[in-house]
Specification:
With 311 residues, the chain is an alpha/beta fold. The chain contains ten helices and twelve strands. A hairpin with a 2-residue loop joins β11 and β12. α1 packs parallel to α2, α2 packs parallel to α3 and α6 packs across α7. The protein binds iron/sulfur cluster (SF4).
Length: 311
């Protein structure tokens, strides 16, 4: 069976071996983050609907689980946009729970959590990762470029209420981009907001994969340390995944990417289509290969390509 809405399993820095589910098409989101690794948002909306039919996703998943023999740490709603925009999210989690004991994760940008109905749906999952890059509208608009009805106040209220109601794991991710939200003022505001939020882990991240907006640049390790100290709350700086310890890391995919890039520079889309591997999965390998200096990003006619570095 050819899968259109599920991909991987992919090696994930937080979730180990994770099977991805794409419940919205590329690129439906309530944010248009400058650092987005997927693409610029083409439908900026907070409107919930069944963007991808739930039954199609569940049929693919049933087939995958029937045939998959390896380890699986999480089934993760993530992918090409904001998963809570799919109005059947809660139904899908219920159905997955009937099929398997593999824990379910939802990676959300937090914009709809202020709605009780959305919280009730995500609370069916075992882990919810919430984005929190800014605690006031000035920074929110700069970094996340949200739909106009989204406000920092609603986001904070949503995460706070989730923390009060939910017994599963809450992970907060703070994404920092140089010159955009990397000010002491933003860190202090986030720190203050976290005083009233219950979360199991708070992780600080920066741009490690090709961003939708080329000007989005990463913070240095020193700058990340500074952010961590101001934000407090035991926040940690997220570490790259380890290919040796992650069971989903596939040397055949790594070799195929290198082999393909050696012939000619390629875009993420070229690699994804050429190798038949979801773009999210390609991105994990690109991130690692780039950090190891094996490949580098180049711009050709305004488009990002990856080039092999001869040693
Ligand atoms: S990073 Fe996530 S929340 Fe931000 S635009 Fe991309 S898909 Fe949407």
């Amino acid at each position: 069976m050819e899968y259109k809405h599920i991909y991987g399993p992919v090696p994930s820095r937080r979730l180990g071996v994770s099977l991805g589910i794409d419940p919205v098409p590329l690129k439906v989101c309530s944010f248009n983050c400058v650092y987005c690794e997927v693409a610029k948002t083409t439908l900026l909306t907070t409107k919930r609907r069944e963007y991808v039919p739930a039954e199609e996703i569940l049929n693919e998943l049933k087939d995958f689980l029937h045939n998959h023999k390896g380890p699986l740490d999480y089934i993760t709603f993530s992918g090409s946009g904001e998963p809570t925009l799919n109005s059947k999210l809660g139904y899908m989690i219920d159905e997955i729970k009937k099929m398997t004991n593999v824990p379910v994760a939802v990676l959300t940008n937090s914009t709809l959590l202020y709605l009780r109905s959305v919280r009730e749906e995500v609370e069916k999952a075992d882990l919810v990762k919430c984005t929190l890059d800014a605690a006031e509208d000035k920074y929110l608009r700069r970094i996340n470029q949200p739909a106009k009805e989204v406000t920092a106040e609603k986001i904070l209220e949503g995460i706070r209420l989730l923390g009060e109601e939910y017994s599963g794991n809450i992970l907060i991710e703070i994404m920092l981009v140089k010159g955009i939200n990397d000010t002491e003022e933003n860190y202090k505001q986030i720190s203050k907001a976290l005083d009233s939020i219950k979360a199991d882990r708070i992780q600080i991240n920066t741009v490690v994969r090709p961003p939708a907006f080329g000007f989005a640049r990463p913070l240095s390790q020193k700058e990340l340390e500074f952010a961590k100290n101001v934000i407090g709350h035991n926040a940690e700086i997220i570490k790259p995944f380890n290919r040796k310890t992650n069971a989903a890391y596939r040397t055949d995919v790594e070799n195929a990417i290198i082999g393909s890039i050696k012939i000619r520079p390629q875009t993420i889309k070229d690699l994804s289509e050429g190798l038949g591997v979801h773009r999210d999965e390609i991105l994990k390998y690109i991130e690692l290969l780039e950090s190891e200096g094996k490949i580098k990003e180049i711009l050709l006619n305004g488009e990002k390509f990856y080039k092999y570095i001869e040693k």
